[in-house]
């Protein structure tokens, strides 16, 4: 069992589902975010408020950690200047602090938006070249390349989880892109407990019949998703408007992020239900 694990973005929706399982993998889970507190803590968990964009705040939180699970960021498209601090500089601060303090591995919440301008019909693998759909996706490309460089030059391992859609299935795209919370937990756990990873990339997607990405080159991580969005297909397709093959949101991996103007919210049109876990 690890002595100390750090979770950034602990106040977010995905972070809310990770806190309890991560607390069972270590003697001490340090959860961090920019909110004042995150309410009731799990056994072995403590909370530290810290701004990712400030090295002086995040470095002391990371000191002494075995691994960092980095889920903290603005989770939507915004103007570049807004994303620069938390999403770009924040990623650098996490990796540099992790290196300085001898952390073994960073598990990073990357995104399909790093490759969002590839067509869904292309069935891309983890070796697909970066093709970001937004400034948000560009930040994910930056962090993945940062992770690769820190492995090559400094020996800091990283597993970059290109998450597709970790939200309730209420649209046709999600029939392929869904990542259930149970599979999310398995994915992060495998990224932590795989003995050696070097620099790795894997798609965060459930075992969907219609999954548009190929994870076979990452099979060594041991991630074997259990859930399948096909159970929702009949209702979702019955309620959806007619498909439009000229709509970038329907044709590209990035979904709505592929069609919005740079700097404008991609989440606004996605009807994401905030089913954050409450302790």
From TrEMBL:
> Which terms does the record give in the GO molecular function aspect?
oxidoreductase activity
What Gene3D superfamilies does the database record attribute to this sequence?
NAD(P)-binding Rossmann-like Domain
Report the residue ranges that make up the NAD-dependent epimerase/dehydratase domain in this protein: 6-163
InterPro entries in the cross-refs: Epimerase_deHydtase, NAD(P)-bd_dom_sf
Q: Where is the signal peptide?
A: none
Q: Which UniProt keywords apply?
A: NAD, Oxidoreductase
Keyword Acyltransferase present in the record's keywords: the answer is no
- Source domain of life is Bacteria
Give a yes or no for keyword NAD in this entry: yes
What Pfam family is a match for this entry? Epimerase
- Belongs to which family? Belongs to the NAD(P)-dependent epimerase/dehydratase family.
> Which PANTHER family does the entry mention?
4-EPIMERASE, PUTATIVE (AFU_ORTHOLOGUE AFUA_7G00360)-RELATED, NUCLEOSIDE-DIPHOSPHATE-SUGAR EPIMERASE
Provide the protein name: NAD(P)-dependent oxidoreductase
Q: What organism is the protein native to? A: Pararhodobacter oceanensis
């Amino acid at each position: 069992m690890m002595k100390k694990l750090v979770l950034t973005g602990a106040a977010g929706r995905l972070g809310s589902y990770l806190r309890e399982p991560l607390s069972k993998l270590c003697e001490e889970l340090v959860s961090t975010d920019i909110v004042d507190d995150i309410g009731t803590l799990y056994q072995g968990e403590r909370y530290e408020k810290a701004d990712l964009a400030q090295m002086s705040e995040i470095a002391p939180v990371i000191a002494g950690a075995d691994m960092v699970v980095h889920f903290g960021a603005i989770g939507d498209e915004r103007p570049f200047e807004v994303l620069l601090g938390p999403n770009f500089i924040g990623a650098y601060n996490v990796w540099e602090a992790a290196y300085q303090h001898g952390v073994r591995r960073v598990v990073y919440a990357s995104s399909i938006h790093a490759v969002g301008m590839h067509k869904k019909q292309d069935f891309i693998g983890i070796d697909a070249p970066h093709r970001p759909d937004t400034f948000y996706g560009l930040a994910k490309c930056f962090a993945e390349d940062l992770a690769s460089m820190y492995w090559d030059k400094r020996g800091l391992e990283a597993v970059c989880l290109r998450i597709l859609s970790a939200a309730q299935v209420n649209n046709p795209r999600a029939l392929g892109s869904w990542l259930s919370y149970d599979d999310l937990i398995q994915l992060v756990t495998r990224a932590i407990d795989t003995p050696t990873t070097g620099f790795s990339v894997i798609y965060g997607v459930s075992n969907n019949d219609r999954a548009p990405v190929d994870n076979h080159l990452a099979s060594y991580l041991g991630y074997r998703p259990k859930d399948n969005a096909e159970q929702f297909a009949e209702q979702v397709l019955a309620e959806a408007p007619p498909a439009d093959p000229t709509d970038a949101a329907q044709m590209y991996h990035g979904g709505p992020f592929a069609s919005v103007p740079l700097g404008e919210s991609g989440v606004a049109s996605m009807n994401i239900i905030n089913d954050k876990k409450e302790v």
